[in-house]
Amino acid sequence: MAVEKTFQEINERIKKGQAVVVTAEELVNMVKEKGVTRVTSEVDVVTTGTFGPMCSSGAFLSLGHSKPRIKMNKVWLNDVPAYSGIAAVDAFIGATEVPEDDPLNSVHPGEFRYGGGHVIQDLVARKKVLLKATGYGTDCYPRREIETEITIDDINEAILFNPRNAYQNYNCAVNLSTRTIYTYLGMLKANLANAHYSTSGQLSPLLKDPMFKTIGVGTRIFLGGGIGYVVWNGTQHFPGVNQDDNGQSYGHAGATLSVLGDLKQMSPRWLVGTSMLGYGATLTVGIGIPIPLLNEEICRYAAAGDDELYAPIMDYSDAFPNLNSSNLGYVSYAELKSGKITVNGKEVPTAPVSSYPRAREIAGTLKQWIQKGDFLLGEPVQLLPNADAGIKVNTLKG
Amino acid sequence: MSSKKVVLRFGADIADQPIIYKLVKDYDLVINILKANVNPQKEGTLVMDITGVNTEQGIEYLRRLGVRVQSLTEEIIQNEEKCVSCGACTDICPTGALYMERPDMVVRFNSDRCVVCHLCVKACPMKAMEVRF
Ligand code: SF4
Ligand code: SF4
B57 CB under 6 A from ligand 2? Predict the structure, then answer.
């Protein structure tokens, strides 16, 4: 009889310290050796991980009241502006925000040495951060300015809230033009001289549950070194299937997650301020998601290896900026990780921008948490829309 | 025996002379060329590693010929605390000094191969590659 498990059954086993947990990397080999049926009955949870730059990240900070009170109208943290149009002493610091006097790309390529992502890393590192705020003065909030040092422990709440993280799959970026270009996937040399990609392939969370059979609102995850939750689908969540011109399928892509957690328990090792030359500042985020092996179908998806997962090759000098979806074919993560691929008949060196060793560490840490009984699976109260939902992409006119 | 990294710049007038041969033959030096470039005006730049007891005499010889010799006092280091092994520098580094150890995909730095071009210093998203004087 086919194996069917429930979240509750697996959580009971976790509580008793009996759950069998393996990383996605380990699962790939196990299924090759023993087959799906046996592995599904033997293994309870598979852990995944990814560690790469994730722009749509940020933190809500509830800064606390001063004496006398101020209604903060403008807020800066280490000179990086935070959005304060929420409430009197609440602010949202976005990962890609940069100081107002940043030269940006005026001397191309700009360095973007410090931005919102770096502020978030300094906060979790428990460093002192300079808070400046101005207000217009009201009867109940009379103060007009404040300048003080804070640490994350001095303020009331710090909540990491990332509206779009953990992209299911990503482009392999190349540059067909004759000049070097600076992208969010790093520096791409002219004339197809290198290729950059960014997922952890066989360890990557949303490639392992591509149809959202287990991940949904309420899924408990490893986030930034602490515990977080999937709270919604991410923005620009366009789950679909990659296909080439002949209709050949190259796997799932396009889904994203919205995640949240208590920044105070996270760590600077897993939230790293990031400067993409010529592009901007961002935050590199560590995310790990457990996938319960409820049945064989889930196990089969989770067991996909680097040789079965593909990324589309995209030209970032023309096709990408001009929103032209045509690509230069597909390449497997096994090929990408080998260090070279062939594009348009040319051998091209590859490099990732997301860290595979760190992704592996995340999957391993999450595995330990679950084995120790510290981390129970969160059963989603609602699963996320998958490729069958037929979500359409809107683009702006103008 | 310790080696010395130098940058040589020479004009078109001497670009055709067997300079390296002389260093090896007459001064008994071990030469390891890390980077060589001749521009369309026939002016050359050479980054190399010199090992041997007669290093100073060899450099004196180069200077007499009109070669500008600059010692590479700047050094690039990899801040291992900051490096996350993302890999973004490995295909940017022109000499393979930054490379990926497979299959673990850990990024390593071999300073012997570094020619201090600074490309990684700019390209590293974590600012983990640092310049030391
Ligand atoms: S780009 Fe920087 S962080 Fe990434 S591997 Fe290279 S040195 Fe390390
Ligand atoms: S400075 Fe950086 S990029 Fe240049 S050779 Fe040295 S390690 Fe490679």
Answer: no
For chain B positions 28-87, those within 8 Å of chain A (CB to CB) are 84-87
pLDDT for res B1:
62
- Its CATH architecture, for the domain B2-71, is 2-Layer Sandwich (3.30)
Query: Does ipTM top 0.90?
Result: yes
Per-residue pLDDT of A64-84, as tens digits, reads: 999 999 999 999 999 999 999
DSSP conformational letter for A316: T
Cα–ligand 2 centroid distance for A283 (angstroms): 24
What's the pLDDT at B38? 83
Q: Find the DSSP H helices in chain A.
A: 7-15, 24-34, 36-42, 116-124, 205-208, 296-302, 333-338, 356-371
- Express each pLDDT in A164-183 by its tens digit: 999 999 999 999 999 999 99
CA A198 to centroid of ligand 1, rounded, Å: 14
Architecture of the domain made up of B75-132: 2-Layer Sandwich (3.30)
Asked if B16 is an interface residue toward chain A (Cβ–Cβ < 8 A), one would say no
| Sole residue written with tokens 């709440």 | A157
From the CA of B88, which ligand is nearest? Answer: 1
Cβ contact, residue pair A274, B106, below 8 Å: no
CB A146 within 8 A of CB A75: no
